[in-house]
Amino acid sequence: MRLSQYFLPVLKETPKEAQIASHRLMLRAGMIQQSSAGIYSWLPLGKRVLDKIENIVREEQNRAGALEILMPTIQPAEIWQESGRYDDYGAEMLRIKDRHDRDMLYGPTNEEQITDIFRSHVRSYKALPLNMYHIQWKFRDEVRPRFGIMRGREFLMKDAYSFDLDADGARTAYNKMFVSYLKTFARMGLTAIPMEADTGPIGGDMSHEFIILAETGESGVFFHKDWLQADLLADIDYDADLQPFVDKFTALYARADEKHNPQDCPVADQDLMTMRGIEIGHIFYFGTKYSAAMGATVSGPDGQNLPVHMGSYGIGVSRLVGGIIEASHDDKGIIWPDSVAPFDVAIVNLKPGDVACDSVCAELYQGCIKAGMDPLLDDRDERPGAKLAAMDLIGIPWQVVVGPRGLDNGVLEVKRRKTGDTEELTPAGVVNRLQHR
Ligand code: ATP
Ligand code: MG
Question: Which of 75, 377, 381, 411 is an S-S bond match for 424, by CB 3.0 to 4.6 Å?
Answer without folding.
Answer: 411
